[in-house]
Amino acid sequence: MLDHRLLFVTGKGGVGKSSVAAALGALAAERGKRAVVAEVHRRTDVEHVVTAAGADHVSIDPQDAMEEYLVDQLPRALAELLSSSRAFAYLAAATPGMRELLTVGKVWELAQDQRRTPGAEPYDLVVVDAPATGHGVAMLAAPKTFADAAMAGPIARQGRIIHEMLADPARTAIVAVTTPEEMPVNETLALRDGLEQANGQHLALVVVNGLRRKRLTAEEAGALESHREHPAVTAALGLHVLALEQRAQLRRLRRHIGAPTTTVPYIAGGADIAAIARRLDGALA
């Protein structure tokens, strides 16, 4: 998994995809790779954890990406004129899919041996904390959509180059993150279908985050039923039912997803990036 050049991590909002992306970046750095975790929409949720682990962190803003692209593609005077043009900025922002194209274009640039930024070193691995499921699919499909629409010219050529990398399973892998609950599992299955239909891509791995430990056997749970009036027993039985429901959703996911899965246990007190990295390290070994 970490031998890919691009690793997109997506999933339903709130399932822990940013934590998984940070853990993958930290794990890659631990294995001696020059890695960067790229977040979108100016998010910096896990920056300190990622950099402390030895990986780089970048927050991608479509406006910044557009200005960088213009400087690279056009004569400097024209690039500065367009970058400072409010009308051009409004036009770019209003064009459907343009923000996704600019974002994924910057992601692609980070994964090149010859970086657009003067003096910038190439990365062995770019881990993308991608937008939530639907927007993530739109971002991955944007280069092909624009290339097909333009048919010829620099946008079509650039779109095809980026799409070729995104659609190449040897260079790009897509990791879905979910929790073992009905709606997130449904969305993960929809993500699989959306990727295949939009771009012909397949999930390389599904990380099931927050799996509760099953602490009681069926016999033990049955024996406790007669003491349900006690608050501690009520809480224990509630967690037991939750653990059973999560495993039912996990089985449903594995039955239908058609991709490798791994689990990350529920961590009390919030996301522990180091613990998630250790868990993924074992799963990816």
From TrEMBL:
InterPro entries according to UniProt: ArsA/GET3_ATPase-like, ATPase_ArsA/GET3, P-loop_NTPase
Query: Which intervals hold domain ArsA/GET3 Anion-transporting ATPase-like?
Result: 5-146
One example of the protein's molecular function in GO is: ATP binding
- Which Pfam families does the protein's record reference? ArsA_ATPase
PANTHER family (alphabetical): ARSENICAL PUMP-DRIVING ATPASE ARSENITE-TRANSLOCATING ATPASE (PTHR10803), ATPASE GET3 (PTHR10803:SF3)
Give the protein family.
Belongs to the arsA ATPase family.
Q: What is this protein called?
A: ArsA/GET3 Anion-transporting ATPase-like domain-containing protein
Give the organism the record lists: Capillimicrobium parvum
Organism lineage:
Bacteria, Bacillati, Actinomycetota, Thermoleophilia, Solirubrobacterales
